[in-house]
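Handout for the seminar on molecular recognition.
Each group receives one record of this type.
Step one: identify the two inputs.
Step two: read the structure output and locate the region that could contact zinc ion.
Step three: write two sentences on what you found, then compare them with the reference statements printed after the record.
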Amino acid sequence: MFYGYGYGMFYDPTYILVVIGAVICLIASARVKSTFSKYSRYRSACGLTGRQAAEEMLHRNGIYDVQVVHISGQLTDHYDPRNKTLALSDAVYGSTSVAAIGVAAHECGHAIQHQKEYFPLSFRSTLVPVANFGSAICWPMILLGFFMTSNTGYFLIMLGIICFSLSVLFQIVTLPVEFNASHRALVFLRESQMLDPAELKYTKRVLSAAALTYVASAAAMILQLLRLILISGGRRRE
Ligand SMILES: [Zn+2]
């Protein structure tokens, strides 16, 4: 999610903040892909596929109403609380690698959060429509504000920044949700002895690389917000 590419028309020096954010995201994304593909080649000793590992973890946590399904694509794995579906991608669903088991267990971590009504997850779900609305209207509002010379213009920019902040908040709330799901996954894989200590170390690397992509997205959003605040300050002095 990179907001505001169309906003580069202003060519101001603060645009560098947007570029830095985009570069951080690209690095994090390349890193998770290479780490995942590296540990996709390590077959786990337990021999369970991502799907089997997920079902085992769900059942051991008393969850029987979550459906584990296959989804196409790369790193498209997710848990959907609306229909209680745990979707595992091509390289996870039928794979017996330590990376696949790690990702499957992470998604189960979200299903467990949902079952236990883990607060950051519920709060994040509540934020979805608000953040979507905010990100849809913030840029038109800010652009319009810049074309208006009166105080109304300044007011519109401020309102746009507040709307953008909702998306930033969403990215920040995502962090505890993701870290907690990985933590639940690693604790389960260790305690159930599904993975041995060496395998666990590899799985942890995959999940840490994945977590960093969320940190990068949040950092990129904060940098964009900072930029908006800086340019709106400049606009006020004009
Ligand atoms: Zn996750």
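Reference statements: The chain has one domain: 15-43+98-237. The chain has a mean pLDDT of 92.
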